[in-house]
Amino acid sequence: MVLVPCVSINPSKKREVQVILDYNKKRHNMISSDDFLLKYWKHYIQLEKEFSFTVNYVAIDSINYDTYSDAYLKIILQVGSEIDVSCKLLCSLLGESIPIGNIHKYKKCIIENIKDFCDIRINEKLSGINSCPWEEWKFENGVPTWWTIYNKIKHHRISVGTISGTKQEYYKFANLKHTLLSLMGLYQLMLYSYYLIAKNEGSELLVPLPGSRLFDTKSSIWKELDKGSNDISIFNESDGTLHIYTGKFDY
Where are the domains of the chain? Predict the structure, then answer.
């Protein structure tokens, strides 16, 4: 385990970050940041680590997007399950209790409370590939393609179906592209959940921001970070990128 310094947000700032709502009304829904790190973030790190091992054999490159692997199938099932749990957590932090597995209710809660959630772009640091993993939530009844694939693999693995114009057995959709996008989606959920939890813990916001080896991100909310004494996260004012180099649990 590697302990890291914290990124702090100045409590005197007058403008509230867009994602932050009325915390006083939601305090009863919060878990502690320590619990989050042990019960959510630690598991995310294990999933990212497992995916990183596959990069030794299949490079993260668009030319390999359609590469199928049993390893990807396993990771997609694990990540999809964790996304279900993490969506429920984020909704509870936003003040709503939603039954597990209801992606449309998750969507309604999250995008109503976090206005730019669907536009957040996650960058894969090794390849420079970037995407908005939740952008399909912007459309009526829209869900991410990788989420549809997770459910098809889970419930109809050997059945044949068509997704995005391709017809094949559902398990063959467990490829590099969909595995990468689903992991990006989980990473984004982790960022926002921890951000909300940490802010709730005191008047001075201390956020040991998750230190993914794979990803960094852009969002207007990171402009609120006090970066003066931080030697882990570097905010690029020119393009809004938050670069994070280490984390609570390392590998």
Answer: 22-210
